[in-house]
Amino acid sequence: MSKIAVSTTVNGDPAEFLCDAGETLLDVLRGSLGLTGSKEGCASGDCGACTVMLNSQMVCSCLVLAVEAEGKSIATVEGVAEGSVLHPVQRQFLEHGALQCGFCTPGFIVAAKALLEVNPDPDETEIRYWLAGNLCRCTGYDKIVRAVSAAAAELRQDSKAQRSAA
Amino acid sequence: MTTLTYHAPRTREEAVALLAADPTAKVLSGGTDLIVQMRGGRAAPTAIVDIKNVSAMMSVLGNDGRYSIGAAMPCTGMLRDEGLCKAWPGVVEAANLIGSVQVRNRATMGGNLCNASPAADSIPALIAAGATVLIVGPSGIREVPVEQVPVAPGKTSLTAGEFVVEIRLPVRPARSSDAYLRSIPRTEMDIAVVGAGVSITLDEAGTCTAARVALGAVAPTAILVPEAGAALVGSKLDGAAMDAMAAAVRAACRPIDDKRGTAEYRTAMAGVLAKRTALIAAARAKGEA
Ligand SMILES: Cc1cc2nc3c(=O)[nH]c(=O)nc-3n(C[C@H](O)[C@H](O)[C@H](O)COP(=O)(O)OP(=O)(O)OC[C@H]3O[C@@H](n4cnc5c(N)ncnc54)[C@H](O)[C@@H]3O)c2cc1C
Ligand code: FES
Ligand code: FES
C-alpha cells in the first residue's frame, strides 16, 4: 500500500509526513508528528478535544483527512504558548482552576483563543455558544467560562497598553 | 483489504470521470458526515473525491439578485456575504445551526443535502426558499429543485457519476423574507425533533401574496407542504389563517417515534413551530426584524 506524502506547516514550521488516504489529521498529529496535545475523545466531531486551527479556521482534526492538510497551515495547542510564556487563555485556565482531568483542556484552549481573535469582548452567552462543541465531563463549565472572560479582559488591557505605548 | 484512494480534482470534468469510474467512490465536501460514517463502518468507499479544489466550489456569487453558492462552501463562510444574509436570512441561519463552530467551519449545504438525513437543518430552509441545485454528471448538467434531491433517508436522486456543484437561490422580491426554526432538546449540537422553514412575500398592505412552508424530521425526507403555504396566501397572517396553515402542516406529517420524540409530539410541534417561523419571516419581510 503506497503512502501519500503531504507537506504542510504546523505551528509555523514546515512539516512533512506520509499517510494513508483514510487517516485523519488527528491520527497524524498524534502519531507521526508526535504532537499529542490534541486529544481523541470521540472521533466523531462531538467533543472538540481534537480542535486545531486549519488555515485559521477552527476544526475537529478527527473530521479532517490528513491528506487534506497538503499546502495548508495547522496550529495546535502546542503552539499556543510562546516558549515558556503561557498565553493569557492558558494562564487564566490555571488561575481559575478551569480544569480537572485536563483531557478537554487543549481543545478548549485552542477554541477560546480563536474566539478572542474574532470577538475580543464576548459575553457569557457568546462564550457558551462558541464553546458548545467542546465537552467537559469534570468542571461543569462555569470555571471555563470565567477563565475565558478573564483572558479576554487581560488581552483587551494588553492591546490598550500597546496602543498607548505606540 | 481494499485500499482507499484520495483524489482532489481541479475541474468538474475530472471529478465526474473519477466518480463515474468507480461506483463506490464518494464525494468529500466538509467530511462531517462522511468521515464519521467511514469510521463507523457505515460507508466504505474505495475512492474519495474531494471536490473542494474544483473551481468556484467554495464561493458565493451574487448576480442580478440571484445567488449561487458553491456546493463545498462551508456554512460559516456564508456569514461573510452580507447581501446573502440580508436576502436569505432563513437559509443562512439554518445552515449555521448545524453542529458546533468547528463543524460549521467544514460542513456544507451540499453535504447536508446529499447526506439526505430526514432531520437535516438546511434542507427545509432551502426548499422554503425555492432553491435549486445544479448537478453535473457524465451526461451533462441539470438543474433540479432541492426537494427532488433526497428520496429516502440517506438516499438521493443523483445517478452514477453525478455530483452537486452549486445551490441557487432565486431573486428575492420586495417585502419578502424567510426564517428557519428547529425544536431540539439542547440549543446546540443536537438533531432536530422538528424543523420548519418558511419564506413569505407580502404586499404593501401586509397581505401575504406568496408563501412556501417546508418541514424537516417529520417524514422520510424534508417535505414541501404546498397546502400550508396556500393557507397563508390572501391573509394578513391572522389567527384563522395561521391555524389553517398549522392544520395543513400537521396533516402532512408522517413522522416516526424515536428517542428524541414521539410521532404525536412531532406532529403537534410541527404546527407550533411553523407558526413561529412564519411570524419571524413576516416580521423580516416588513423590515421589523
Ligand atoms: C458533531 C456534529 C453535529 C452535527 N449537527 C448537525 C445539525 O445540527 N444539523 C444537521 O443538519 N446536521 C448536523 N450534522 C451533520 C453534518 O455536519 C451535516 O449534514 C453537514 O452539512 C454535512 O456536510 P459536509 O460538507 O460535511 O458533508 P460530507 O460529509 O462531505 O458529505 C456528506 C454526504 O454527501 C455526499 N456529498 C457531499 N457533497 C456532495 C456534493 N456536492 N454532491 C454530491 N454528493 C455530495 C458525500 O459523499 C456524503 O455521502 C452534525 C455532524 C456532526 C459531526
Ligand atoms: S475527537 Fe474530534 S471531536 Fe471528539
Ligand atoms: S477537565 Fe476533565 S473533561 Fe474537562
Explained architecture:
The complex is a heterodimer of chains A (166) and B (289). By secondary structure, chain A is α+β, with helices and mostly antiparallel strands. Chain A folds into two domains: 4-79, Ubiquitin-like (UB roll) (Roll), CATH 3.10.20.30; 88-165, Orthogonal Bundle (DNA polymerase, domain 1). In chain A, 36% of the residues lie in helices and 15% in strands. Chain A contains five helices and five strands. Chain A has helices at residues 25-30, 88-95, 105-118, 124-130, 142-165, and strands spanning 4-10, 13-19, 51-54, 57-60, 73-75. Chain A has a five-stranded mixed β-sheet with strand order 2-1-5-3-4, with helices on one face. In chain A, helix 2 crosses helix 5. The model of chain A has no long low-confidence stretch (mean pLDDT 96). In chain B, strand 12 (194-202) and strand 13 form a beta hairpin. Chain B is 33% helix and 25% strand. Chain B is globular and about 60 Å long. The mean pLDDT of chain B is 96. Chain B folds into two domains: 54-169, Uridine Diphospho-n-acetylenolpyruvylglucosamine Reductase, domain 3, CATH 3.30.465.10; 181-285, CO dehydrogenase flavoprotein, C-terminal domain (Enolase-like, domain 1, 2-Layer Sandwich), CATH 3.30.390. Chain B has 289 residues and is an alpha+beta fold. In chain B, strands 4-5-10-6-7 form a five-stranded antiparallel β-sheet. A four-stranded antiparallel β-sheet of chain B has the order 11-12-13-14, with helices on both faces. In chain B, strands 1-3-2 form a three-stranded parallel β-sheet, covered by helices on one side. Chain B has helices spanning 12-21, 34-39, 75-78, 82-87, 89-95, 101-104, 109-115, 122-129, 226-232, 239-252, 263-285, and strands at residues 5-7, 26-28, 47-50, 60-63, 66-70, 132-137, 140-145, 150-152, 155-156, 163-169, 176-183, 194-202, 208-216, 223-224. In chain B, helix 5 (89-95) runs antiparallel to helix 8 (122-129) and helix 10 (239-252) crosses helix 11 (263-285). Chain B has eleven helices and 14 strands. At the A-B interface, strand 4 of A face helix 2 and helix 6 of B. The complex binds flavin-adenine dinucleotide and FE2/S2 (inorganic) cluster (2 copies).
